[in-house]
């Protein structure tokens, strides 16, 4: 259990250390045993969600038709982060998002996260359906050709899907 929070901590430190200006990180986080400092109490995600519910700080986003809590907490080793507990329509479970940029609101965070999610879907589909990464050639040019072919095929399939969906 301690492995995942340690990996997140290292990832955030690495991303924040890149470049001259510190970069911010937005990610979906599991609601596990990692502890957050909120008003002097050390709480895990489920305990924090219960406290926020009892405080009555739930908000509603009409644009995304969702309910959410947003809270500033201290995360050991990183500092102050903003947590978003979100419940999407027709889902019973709450999702947890973490942002190192404490100035973001929910809609800005969701916009950035949705862009990231489309990239994740792109890589998943190219690996699963177009066999990206299965080229066994030792020639560098063959590897580049394989990746380029997969990406071009993905673009063509996306184009044909779009044309056929809008008849």
Q: Give the overall average pLDDT.
A: 88
Quickly count the helices. 4
Rg result: 20 Å
Tell me the helix content. 40-55%
Order of SSEs: HEEEHEEEEHH
Task: Name the structural class.
Answer: alpha+beta
What's the total number of strands? Answer: 7
The best one-word shape is globular
Order of the strands making up the biggest sheet = 1-7-6-5-4
Weakly predicted, low-confidence segments = none
Question: Could you list some keywords that capture this structure?
Answer:
22% strand, 2 domains, 4 helices, two-stranded antiparallel sheet, alpha+beta, 167 residues, 7 strands, 5-stranded antiparallel β-sheet
Describe the protein's architecture and organization.
The protein is an alpha+beta fold and 167 residues long. The chain has helices at 3-17, 45-55, 106-128, 140-165; strands at 26-29, 36-38, 41-43, 59-61, 66-75, 79-87, 95-99. The protein has two domains: 3-105, no CATH class; 129-165. It is built from four helices and seven strands. The strands form two sheets. Strands 1-7-6-5-4 form a five-stranded antiparallel beta sheet, sandwiched between helices. The chain has a two-stranded antiparallel sheet with strand order 2-3. β5 (66-75) and β6 form a beta hairpin. The longest helix has 26 residues, at 140-165. The protein starts with a helix and ends with a helix. The model has no long low-confidence stretch (mean pLDDT 88).
